[in-house]
Amino acid sequence: MNFKNKVVLVTGASKGIGKAIASSFAKEGAKVVVNYNSSKDEALEVVDEIKKLGTEAIAVHCDVTNEEDIKKMIIETVKIYNGIDILVNNAGQIIRPGDSNTDSDSWSKTLDINIKGVWLMIKYAITHMKNGSSIVNISSYVGQLGSQYVLPYEIAKAGVINLTKAYAKELAPDIRVNSVSPGNIDTSMTRGAGEEFIQKTISNTPLKRLGEPSEIAKAVLFLASSDASFITGVNLDVDGGFMLTN
Ligand code: NAP
Questions:
Q1: The CATH number of domain 7-245 is 3.40.50.720
Q2: In the annotation, is 153 catalytic?
Q3: 3-state DSSP assignment of residue 173
């Protein structure tokens, strides 16, 4: 896979899966826009690491729930790099139970971050994406289970898969749109669920471990690459087999 001089915008690239995606594209020669919301220092570290690889990167603040922020981030990206070749909608957040299943503010916030933000990013990015560009959205295994553990998050992630298919049809044949559904990956989001959850999920995963952020990045790079030139509208589970048994 060669992304030399391709412009890649990754939302939520300050840590976890987004950071791994940003670094993986940079290793293949891409120029990377590292979006962050609250973790500015971490985002600047990601940019430094990318520059050490010999390619370009900028860190841009944008809360994906804020339409004005999104417009500004897209304008800044286009001003510096003249367009966007690959958009990765990775930013996401779980508001854990205790309030998120029952409190309407938590519902709205969760849906704003995890699904409306994806829609807004696509809405404003596509006018700057040329034929042959690609979009990869990060969904989740929980978007396919109906488990009601964190209901608004799960609904939002199911929405990401549906939105991916809708845009794959709308933007074909010019722009391919796919999603990746991670299983439980070793990031702060998963660690935040606690040790009991982690041990249970490892035991329920056929490959008997958490995934690594780099393993999600590999799937994203594949879908964004010319190796996936006849693939659009798919959701790729990268979950150690979790969906087989749950
Ligand atoms: P993480 O380590 O908690 O990182 C989340 C990232 O999203 C951070 O960079 C954060 O930026 C960003 N973010 C959150 N709210 C944002 C907002 N309003 N605007 C812009 N950026 C925002 O989580 P992760 O595990 O890497 O998750 C990455 C994606 O994978 C998410 O979409 C998540 O739902 C999905 N996913 C994760 C797992 C898993 O097991 N970890 C499983 C399935 C799906 P700041 O820190 O700068 O605020």
A1: yes
A2: yes
A3: coil
Sign of CA dihedral 222, 228, 229, 231: negative
β-sheet bridge partners, residue 174: none
> Is 44's C-beta closer than 6 angstroms to any atom of ligand 1?
no
Question: Which DSSP string do the residues of 143-172 spell out, in sequence order?
Answer: GGT---SSHHHHHHHHHHHHHHHHHHHHHT
Give mean pLDDT, residues 148-167. 94
DSSP 8-state symbol, 132: T
Provide the residue ranges of all domains of the chain, joining segments of one domain with +: 7-245
Q: Which of 1, 4, 7 is nearest to 33 (CA)?
A: 7
The end-to-end CA distance of the chain, in Å, is 33
Given a cut of 80, whether residue 99 has pLDDT beyond it is no
Q: Tell whether ligand 1 has an atom less than 6 A from the beta carbon of residue 205.
A: no
Strands 86-89 and 134-138: parallel
Asked if residue 36 has its Cβ within 6 Å of ligand 1, the reply is yes
- Between CA 157 and CA 88 the distance in angstroms is 15
The answer to whether the CB of 131 is under 6 A from ligand 1 is no
pLDDT in tens, 34-57: 999 999 999 999 999 999 999 999
Residue of 80, 75, 68, 89 lying closest to 31 (CA atoms): 80
Ligand 1 atom nearest the C-alpha of 189 is 3
Distance between CA atoms of residues 20 and 17, nearest Å: 5
Task: Tell me which of 33-37, 63-67, 94-98, 102-106 is least confident.
Answer: 94-98
Separation of CA 90 and ligand 1 centre (Å): 6
